[in-house]
Amino acid sequence: MLTDLNLTPQPPRHLDADVCICGAGPAGIVLALELARRRPDWRIVLLEGGGRSLASERERILYDVGLAAKSYAVAASRRRMLGGTSGHWGGWCKPLDPADFTAPAAWSVPDWPVTLDDLQPYLASAHVWCEIPSNRYDPDEVRARQPQRFLDLPAGSPVAEHLFRFSPPTRFGARYADELAGQSNLDGLLHANLFALERRGDRIVSASARALDGKPVRISARRFVLAQGGLETTRTLLNLRGDASDDGEGLRSPHLGRYFADHYGVSPGTVLAPAELGYRRMADQDTAVMPVLAPSPGALRQAGRQNVCLMLAHDPADDSLPASYATHAALGFSTRAFWSYRAQMIVEPRPHPESRITLTDTRCELGLRRAHLDWRLHPQDTASALAFFDDLGTVLAQSGQGRTRLTYEATPARLASVNGANHHLGTVRFAHDPKDGVADADGRIHDMENLYVASSALFPRYGYSNPTLTIVALAIRLASRWAGESAEAGT
Ligand SMILES: Cc1cc2nc3c(=O)[nH]c(=O)nc-3n(C[C@H](O)[C@H](O)[C@H](O)COP(=O)(O)OP(=O)(O)OC[C@H]3O[C@@H](n4cnc5c(N)ncnc54)[C@H](O)[C@@H]3O)c2cc1C
């Protein structure tokens, strides 16, 4: 059932549930429906602060964020409504690479407590939730049908190829509203703004939510999940920590709020390469795919660099590497026609402890302290990206397939103007050892018995893949682990 607290004359004052989920974006909706389907004997409550359409200014201001020196388009990066930010996501999807689950020792970052093999069983259904027509990511399958779209990369090359796929993009609110409404063991409350978690020792006993002009609804549950997006989940946890010190574990972990990161782009320069290459969004068998160039696993491991991917956009107007250059027989170019391309990269940000969310002393209308974001880029980010561009130049030159020309300079002004891709990563990172992270492999806050997080805030290392497919796979994994329990377990 879906109840809008703004439209119901006598909303409930108290609900009892097995699981209370706060936030109805992709993470919250998938977790709620997976649990409701798998456990008809359980009662699920899903709280959503927004309604079915865009938030009013008064609602949006509830989670305004203060900014430090570096700007960040916070308002454009979230939607407070049923379906959350999937209300305007782009639908780019790709599982993380195997290398993204472990971090080089020099980074002082824990490995993921979950491996790609652990996630694999849930990735297939994550594709169904995101309405992606295929879960096959081998670029060679596309190459077999469209060889002219690909370079001939020599064996052992430090440059490899990967593939993105695309969700339509699924607007999770509109797409799954009927199913939420029709699920008899699920209570979805709209315009239900979480404003308090009642804690007894290491347990949360109730959550309180209210419409802005309404009375509170109190939800008692065995388990609570924060699925409010990467920024707001972190803010809720920091508010719950209150004035307690940050030298402990779980809620008191010094890692809570740190390592805020977002993917961003670098345009390193120009590439002269064979005509008609398809390292960009293109059609294949009536679906959209995007082959990209990326470091090979061996190159990544050896160099301890960040992951990165590179797309190419044909730029006939760019004469910095003119196509006629390729006609100089002495340079040993292959006999194919050549084009000039502009290179665009997505950079994996390296976790940076000083890039962080803290609380200010001002409070929103709900009484919660406001968040403050100090987004910082790690100096190694662009170094890794440019090293890969250099590798690509070497491979192209040695194989007679082209040249690269670097035009990028990492000036302070340029770094200050970098925009994020609206992915809120890292601030509640999970790790096996409570000393390394805030939550455990299930997203349970280490020092709390029944408080969980479902969000890209859990990611300890980020890769360059967009996060939503992995967020959804993690939510399905959590539902599957809980649903396997006997009715008495997990209290
Ligand atoms: C312009 C744009 C393009 C994007 N493109 C892509 C892309 O191509 N691929 C990709 O993978 N990702 C993309 N993203 C990111 C993607 O939208 C997020 O990764 C995804 O929505 C995160 O899901 P979530 O459920 O964790 O959080 P959200 O979708 O943010 O949902 C959180 C929910 O919690 C609710 N909430 C917050 N606070 C409270 C409270 N106090 N009480 C009750 N409810 C609350 C919010 O209203 C919201 O509904 C894009 C984002 C933007 C902005």
Automatic annotation (TrEMBL):
Cofactor(s) needed: FAD
Keywords on record: FAD, Flavoprotein, Oxidoreductase
Does the keyword rRNA-binding feature in the UniProt annotation? no
Q: Which InterPro entries match?
A: FAD/NAD-bd_sf, GMC_OxRtase_C, P2Ox-like
Ranges of residues in domain Glucose-methanol-choline oxidoreductase C-terminal: 351-475
Gene3D superfamilies registered for this protein in UniProt: FAD/NAD(P)-binding domain
Q: Which SUPFAM superfamilies match?
A: FAD/NAD(P)-binding domain
Q: Which GO terms describe its molecular function?
A: oxidoreductase activity, acting on CH-OH group of donors
Recorded hits in Pfam families, A to Z, give: GMC_oxred_C
For this chain, the family text in UniProt reads: Belongs to the GMC oxidoreductase family.
Q: What is this protein called?
A: GMC family oxidoreductase
